[in-house]
Design a protein that fits this description.
about 290 residues, alpha/beta, Rossmann fold, eleven-stranded mixed β-sheet, 11 helices, 11 strands, disordered C terminus
Length: about 290
């Protein structure tokens, strides 16, 4: 993990980020999307990059068998204190779990901290390996335009240096806060999300807006049926024809997202059920 990203999270901001203020919108919208696409409890959910367990907590309370895997020791410690939640250290690119262990794998943080495409595809492929045939993979993304939107919202876009930083971020996708010790990440273009899911063997994902105008999720169903971070859906390839015959859960994930999903780029999540299953740039608006 990038030492700068590790230092950012070791400050403990994830303890409160989604539990108060503007972060609550992202929390409730992500929860809403996941409740639509997850298999019913007591399904096994692997929450990769699950932080301090903000989503693992409500999943465990709802009867899910939840394990958080995160590279930050502080996060693992805090998540492990939650009732019904197991936690351990691990990297999304090399998950410490056997093949097909989970009914659903969540990647609600790792992909926007991996600036290299090969690493993001590897993390998605690992999620596909860890989920059972017909299971769900859901991932969150930050929009390529998030940095620019935040600069406008915060009133920093009027500064020449901020505009230049925002435009560099638009060109490269790499986000580096202009503040010392600030946020670092990667902003996706919509077509990148779909291509990376496909390359990892997670076809036909569905995108859902989570928080305007910068975060979204993609979901995909794996396991030899199809459905599909924000949220989108897809399935691993064992029987493509079978995956076309959507199961009830797959149908839930595959249905057309409401209009607001198509116009809210802030949080993008992707659910995918596997069928058969850089240049750095500083950003004036992120903190």
């Amino acid at each position: 993990m990038d030492p700068a990203v590790m230092a950012y999270y070791e400050r403990g901001g994830e303890l409160t980020r989604l539990r108060q203020g503007r972060g609550r919108l992202e929390y409730w919208r992500t929860r809403d999307v996941l409740r639509r696409v997850l298999p019913p409890a007591p399904a096994r959910v692997l929450d990769v990059g699950g932080g301090t367990g903000v989503h693992a907590e409500w999943l465990a309370a709802g009867g899910y068998d939840v394990e958080v895997v995160d590279p930050v020791p502080l996060h693992v410690e805090e998540a492990g204190k939650l009732p019904g939640v197991r936690s351990r250290l691990g990297d999304a690119r090399a998950l410490p779990v056997p093949d097909g262990q989970a009914d659903a794998v969540l990647l609600l943080g790792p992909l926007y901290h991996l600036p290299e495409r090969a690493d993001r595809v590897r993390a998605l492929a690992e999620a596909r390996r860890a989920v059972r045939p017909g299971g769900l993979v859901a991932a969150a993304f930050i929009s390529r335009y998030a940095c620019l939107h935040d600069s406008v919202r915060l009133g920093t876009f009027a500064r020449e240096e901020s505009r230049a930083a925002d435009y560099r971020s638009l060109d490269t996708g790499v986000i580096i806060s202009s503040k010392e010790g600030g946020f670092r990440g990667y902003g996706h273009l919509p077509e990148e999300i779909l291509a990376e899911f496909a390359e990892a063997g997670l076809p036909e994902p569905r995108l859902h807006g989570l928080r305007a105008p910068s975060v979204s999720t993609a979901t995909s169903t794996t396991g030899w049926t199809t459905t599909g971070g924000a949220s989108c859906c897809s399935t691993p390839p064992a029987a493509w024809s079978a995956s076309r015959r959507c199961s009830a859960s797959a149908a839930t994930c595959s249905r057309s997202p409401p209009p607001d999903d198509q116009n809210q780029p802030r949080c993008r999540a992707i659910c995918s059920r596997p069928r058969c299953s850089a240049t750095s740039a500083s950003c004036g608006g992120w903190s």
